[in-house]
Amino acid sequence: MKDFKSFALQKLNVDKQLLLLYCVIYFLWGLGMNWFGAQVEIAKFTFWWQVITCYILYMVPISLLLRGLPFHAQYAYGLVAMGILEFSGYALQTSYAFPNNILDELFNIRNFSLGMALFFALYFPLGNWGVNKIYSFIFDKK
Fold first, then answer.
1. Average pLDDT over residues 86-108
2. Residue 6 falls within a domain, yes or no?
3. Residue 3: its H or E element
4. Which of 30, 37, 43, 74 has its C-alpha lying 20 to 30 A from 4's C-alpha?
5. Is 53 inside any structural domain?
6. 7: in domain
7. CB 79, CB 121: distance < 8 Å
8. pTM for the complete prediction?
9. Which UniProt keywords apply (predicted)?
């Protein structure tokens, strides 16, 4: 446990500009996905502010912990993290899945949360890649 604590502290100790960029990008990404999910009646958060707790307070630290790992490792660890999040969200009813949504129709209602976790696990490798590209473009002017 001591090794993980030192590993986590090292990975979470990043430039404040990078941290701010993660928070802004993930917040906007979360708002957009929540809006899209509600518009096409797939799923949505019960309250808009859950974008902050989910995307910034949960997903940003996990993204930072996974930075630098290969794509497949980020996806695999991200799948575990998103599985826990999706299961908790629907079990606690803090997320709402629209009845008979397109994912239910395509994959069956029993596979809805699994499908969501499989999709959203891509956020970690794609988010790390995207934030790194934007950060390099903005701040690494040499």
1. 91
2. no
3. helix 2-12
4. 30
5. yes
6. no
7. yes
8. 0.89
9. Membrane, Transmembrane, Transmembrane helix
Judge whether 1 lies within some domain. Answer: no
Distance CA 73, CA 87 (A): 21
Mean pLDDT, range 3-19, rounded to an integer = 87
Residue 16 tokens, joined: 């404040």
How many residues comprise the chain?
A: 142
Q: Is the pLDDT of residue 142 over 60?
A: no
Give CA separation, 95 vs 76, 91, 98, in Å. Answer: 23, 9, 10
CB contact at 8 A, 43 and 95? yes
Q: Which tokens sit at 92?
A: 């606690």
**DSSP code per residue over 59-118:** IHHHHHHHTTS-HHHHHHHHHHHHHHHHHHHHHTTSEEEPTT-HHHHHH-GGGHHHHHHH
